[in-house]
Design goal:
This protein has one domain (3-323). The chain is built from twelve helices and no strands. It has helices at residues 3-29, 35-58, 64-90, 95-102, 105-116, 123-144, 156-174, 181-203, 215-251, 255-267, 273-295, 318-323. Helix 2 (35-58) runs antiparallel to helix 8 (181-203) and helix 4 (95-102) runs antiparallel to helix 10 (255-267). The protein is globular, with a radius of gyration of 20 Å.
Length: 331
């Protein structure tokens, strides 16, 4: 497959499957089965499927020692990220607004780049962050005015998710990938399984609700395993490796609109006038910030600073990027 076509396929698959996670969380919150137990079963089943994939394609499941780094990344990008998102959805935050708050991740990544990845965010970028924050605030206010609005503190949970996935994404690109994609995905799924299993046991006082054979449960579990776990995080890892943090983070801005369309069609969730204005402001502000971050060159790095492998942008080829002098990757 041509390089550009493969990149487009990865980007499209990532946006669609990543958006499916918010819809799947909304489906899960409507079931009788406790949502944390459902997600524990989701990740356990997904991990078993990927383990079989590793066995067939690689000949063996990777050792625990080899998977330690990916387990840490998965604890942040899967476990910590989704735990905050799912709890917010379960408390009544709409799927569209949850996705919009989560789409602040590229802005946090840009603000962290100066310290961790040697990049700077200019005045235009900080203006964009302010505009995007205002837009998200309008959406949150609009969402809180619904009859079944969530408590105010529930809107902080997606923000914690943003911090978690940003840390995991930065960690993922600071070191060159050391494992094949199936192995990396398996390690991350195992990490997420452990986090949700522990959370479910705590929430349900030491008991994990068993899976059922009800059609709604099986349909939701299938949605979450196939689209959100294997699809969403498979494309996420592939996008980080092929496109880098900058472009992968930029693609996150497309997920609120896709999620909003799905939520409107499936659940009747719609933003009010203030929410629509807020979404537009958030998109404009985020675009300004990401554009500023991508145009800004790397700041001067201390020669004694640890080496950070460089990712490439859409206008570069991987080979050209690796031939260039090593610099901090953009975020």
């Amino acid at each position: 497959m041509p390089t550009q076509a493969l990149s487009l396929l990865i980007a499209t698959g990532f946006v669609l499957c990543w958006s499916s996670g918010f819809v799947g969380g909304r489906l899960a919150s409507a079931l009788d089965t406790p949502v944390l137990s459902l997600f524990a079963w989701r990740f356990l089943l997904a991990a078993l499927l990927v383990a079989a994939w590793c066995r067939l394609t690689l000949g063996a499941v990777p050792t625990v020692r080899d998977m330690c780094r990916e387990v840490i990344i998965g604890s942040l990008t899967m476990g910590g990220y989704l735990l905050g998102v799912i709890l917010a959805l379960d408390l009544g935050v709409s799927a569209g607004v949850t996705a919009l708050i989560a789409a602040l991740q590229p802005l946090l990544a840009a603000s962290m780049a100066g310290r961790w990845l040697g990049e700077r965010l200019g005045a235009l970028g900080w203006l964009g962050m302010a505009v995007a924050t205002l837009g998200v605030s309008l959406c949150v206010v609009d969402d809180m005015q619904r009859a079944l609005g969530a408590p105010w503190w529930a809107y902080l949970l997606p923000l914690l998710s943003v911090v978690s996935i940003t840390l995991g994404s930065v960690l993922a690109v600071r070191q060159a990938p050391s494992m094949p994609l199936p192995s990396a995905l398996l390690a991350q799924l195992i990490a997420a399984s452990g986090i949700f299993l522990l959370a479910a046991l705590i929430a349900e006082r030491g008991a994990l609700s068993p899976p059922t054979l009800e059609p709604s449960f099986l349909a939701t579990l299938g949605w979450l395993v196939v689209l959100s776990s294997l699809g969403g995080y498979g494309f996420f890892v592939a996008s980080l490796r092929r496109l880098g943090v900058t472009l992968t983070s930029a693609l996150v801005h497309l997920t609120p609109a896709v999620t909003l369309v799905w939520a409107a069609a499936m659940f009747g969730e719609r933003l009010g006038p203030a929410g629509l204005v807020g979404m537009a402001l958030a998109g404009v502000g985020a675009g300004l910030a990401i554009r500023s971050a991508r145009r800004s060159g790397p700041t001067h790095r201390d020669p004694d600073a640890p080496h950070v492998p460089r990712t490439w942008s859409a206008v570069e080829s991987p080979d050209a990027a690796h031939r260039a002098p090593s610099r901090a990757s953009q975020c």
